[in-house]
Amino acid sequence: MSTTPVRPTTILIQPKDAAPKAPAAPSMKVFLELAFRPLYLAGTSWALVAIALWIYTPGLLTAPLGGLAWHAHEMLWGFIATIAFAFMMTAGANWTGITPMAGKVLALACVLWVVARIGFLLPFEAAFWLAMAAELSFFLLGSGAMLRAVAVSKNSRNYAMPVFLAGLAATDALYLLTARGGDYLLLMQRFNAGLVVMALIALLIGRRVIPFFAMRAVHGLTLPTQMKTGWVQLGACTVGVVSLLAGIPMLSAAALGLAGTLALVQIISWKPLAVRGNALLWILYVGYSSIGIGLLMAALQYAGVDLPRVLPVHTIAMAGFSVMIIGMVTRTALGHTGRPLATDRTIRASYWLMLIAVALRLTAIAATPATATLLHIAAAAWIASLALYLWQFTPMLIRPRN
């Protein structure tokens, strides 16, 4: 009999793959901790719905604020200014160390915003006035919250922010009151004043965050702060708003031309070729430069150059603000929810769809047999761009930080 010992059989137990971590449950407390969460979703959702109503079912817009007046108002104050409001309330926490708006106050702001959107759609005079009161309260609540944050923190660098929000409220009130009076030329004058207030906010926020984002993302990139030209741009836009309201076209032309020129000088100094491979950055560069180009167009128009009336408006508002917005609401949402600062195919698709919508809408300004078709395709691209954003980011924004 063999005496060779028998080795025990070794049984290797393969560990099972760890089950993927289930996403955290949605949380109302988290949803209301910073303004970007509810208001990014609200603003982008409304931009999608408002364009669908305006392009595909304009016959439904029979409220006292109807037709073109409703479209212009909802795009500027209902969408663009709402996203700016959300960004300022969110960034204000970093700038001052105090969260300007959260919890019940943020919930109140959201309710006021919803009341305004519904009220401006209802075909009743009382609904218009209720909506107006709610919307002005929304902006003034934000102005007061930001004023408290900068005052308590003694953050003198940001004392202009509550003034900007109050400026949005003031131009909004002027616009809405004029809309009830029926003076179209005065209405557009006041709309343009609101547009320049919003341009001022976008230019100054962009001046602050775009170089910061770029230097963090691109190794070795150093960009100038250009604080002195920022003050000049602030002054130029302020003069632009006052001269527009006062009806002084040549002064408006000079002020808007200076503001637009400075925006383009800034873009060049920010070395755009260095960020061409980073979609989170180049989309912001495109939007910022488009605001500058649109302001130059507006300057030429006020100086007497014969340009299509809506060309500067759509260049500033759509090619400028809306392109910056689709970049900003993705970049800041990724950062504040703890996700990597990188784009995937869905995000890049939303960017390209927005750019296609802009190109088609600007092309449609020229009256041709294809104008109606171009408008419908542009609207479809716009809706698809924002729908992709909502599909991807809604689950992130209603849940705790990753």
Give the SSE layout.
Layout: H1 28-31, H2 36-56, H3 67-96, H4 103-119, H5 125-153, H6 160-181, H7 184-217, H8 227-246, H9 249-269, H10 279-302, H11 311-336, H12 345-363, H13 371-397
What does this structure look like?
- With 402 residues, the protein is mainly alpha-helical.
- 73% of the residues lie in helices and 0% in strands.
- Helix 3 runs parallel beside helix 5, helix 3 runs antiparallel to helix 6 and helix 11 packs antiparallel against helix 12.
Regarding CATH, which class of the largest domain? Mainly Alpha
- The name of the CATH superfamily of the largest domain reads Cytochrome c oxidase-like, subunit I domain
Order of helices and strands: HHHHHHHHHHHHH
Return the domain count. 2
Q: Would you identify the regions where 5 or more consecutive residues have pLDDT less than 50?
A: 6-13
Biggest sheet descriptor: none
Q: Indicate the proportion of strand residues.
A: under 5%
Total helical elements: 13
Distance from first to last alpha carbon: 66 Å
